[in-house]
Known about the structure:
Number of domains: 1
Order of helices and strands: HHHHHH
Largest sheet: none
Mean pLDDT: 89
Number of helices: 6
Amino acid sequence: MSSRIAGVCGIASQLTGLATVLVAALISPWFSWTESYISMLGIEGSVTVLFNSGLIVTGVLGLIFTSGLWRHLPSELLNWAGKAGVACLVLGSLSLSAMGIFPSTLEYPHNTASITFLFFIVLGFLLIGLTGVTKASKKWGWFSLCAGVLILALQPIPWPWSGGAIQQMLFCLPWSIWTVVVSTRLLMRNRASNIGSV
């Protein structure tokens, strides 16, 4: 897979996910950012198909991106931990699609997919980050490590809202920024370079 295909899919995954949530929320007058959870868009009103399909497509695009990322990691990151980190990001993308396949009316599979999405994305960032900071790709490593740590740091904050939509969007922000930055590097790279200079 070429780096450009992976890069395009990475950026497209984030645009698709963001557009899906914002459009679904905009055309759902009952939805409240402070009193609702984002997953409610997949079970109420006429936007259910749009929302759930958007999650599935976002996950598939993310899967193409993370699968392509394997081929374009700096060689020093291709030890067991780096490979395990990328594999975790692949599993995170699959979990995101599963959230759309199993809406929150199917409580157990949906909640499992939600938890595994967060778990695998964070673990992937930490593994790639720790590998990078101990090797030559320190900028890449610190960038990945900070993304994972920031997601973890946001979890215990006592948010003032009864719903979880805003914090759910905030949880995804480091993942989105990481994906867009790395995807941009993939689009800009040439045959003689890698993305280790992030």
